[in-house]
Amino acid sequence: MSLAPRAVLVHRTTEYEELTARHGTHGQAAFFLSSRGRDIEEVAERHRRTRRALAEVTAAIPLTWRQTRLERADLDRFLFAPEDVVVVVGQDGLVANVAKYLSGQPVVGIDTDPGRNPGVLVRHRPADAAALLASALAAGTGVDELTMVEAVADDTQRLLALNEIYLGAAGHQTARYRLGLDGDGGAVEAQASSGVLVGTGTGATGWIRSVWGERGGGGLRLPGPAENRLLWFVREAWPSPATGTSLVAGELTAGARLTVTVESERLIAFGDGIETDALELTWGQTVRVGVCGERLRLLG
Hey, is 284 helix, strand or coil? Predict the structure, then answer.
């Protein structure tokens, strides 16, 4: 007998909860903020909106379904099941945070703070949850399949991301590596830089767009969220007798890969801003970055 669907409600600790945990009480947190010219009521109201949204979405889950709540900090320790329907209650970035841990499960994005969030990935309101959950597993439901980026190291470590993958030093040190492109006649370039950024069309609303804009586009067209195309940029490449700056930007189509061979004691690769869940790379290791075979299935 097949298992009933399970609704996994993904959320994150609110600013208010973080403040009261750090300062002990509401009053102490209020005093801390007031000493810096801020009113705790603004933060508390966002907290209340989030809690109301979680309660409304929870009440909309069908009675025959199983359910669980998952805090963002626990994502890397949670095992998603094939029958899960993932309901992200929060900001756009929270959808990106959860995407790397999924394998085809449908995702519903619920915006807890309309007007403050862009709503690119959290497209729905809490009141929509009942209808969305009822249709989530039905054939013909409108789903956007968003392109993801993956990095695969030569020791089989693998990392997925919805927005972008960053490869570089863990701190502010210079990253040293050799960079090459598949199908480019084996040409590689030794580089010293602030790291390499490879992003998707979804990421083109964030960090990738910022770098792209700073360079005036560089003749590259930003990809769409469902397009099998990535953009990559080298950040602050440094020219020297031993390092070059001729390979600093480009695009990767579905079958192409960007290859980075580490020439530092330690580099990392992390996705979508989650630096705590990173690939650890040491001298001589090679990592290949390109379009991922998996897609994020986001209800439209």
Answer: coil
